[in-house]
Amino acid sequence: MLPKHRRPTHPGEILKYEYLDLLGMTESQLAEFIGISLNTVNELVSGEHPVSSDIAFRLARFFNTSTEFWLNLQRNVDLWDTFQAHSHEYEKISPLKTV
């Protein structure tokens, strides 16, 4: 379920505070360990880059989590952002009435 009054936490923020900081790992080390560019990790941690399926597989493998964990975090952010951008349009749609 999505929060109603705040944007869900970006997976990059969870990556930084719940994984990297707790493990004492740098963004540069993570980039090397999972085979992506430092720039991508920097953008991910700062919330500028989404968790793609590829990144989810890499993070899940490295941290022994699931791809669904990372993708669900990203999906929540995407749903929130989309709803915020288009809610006025969605309100204009009348639900289908069945007989």
Automatic annotation (TrEMBL):
For this protein, the record's SMART domains field holds: HTH_XRE (SM00530)
Q: Which GO terms describe its molecular function?
A: DNA binding
Keyword list (alphabetical) reads: DNA-binding
Keyword DNA repair among UniProt keywords: no
- Enumerate the CDD domains for this protein: HTH_XRE
Q: Which residues form the HTH cro/C1-type domain?
A: 23-70
Its protein name is Toxin-antitoxin system, antitoxin component
Organism per entry = Desulfonema magnum
What does UniProt list as this organism's lineage? Answer: Bacteria, Pseudomonadati, Thermodesulfobacteriota, Desulfobacteria, Desulfobacterales
Q: Which gene encodes it?
A: higA5
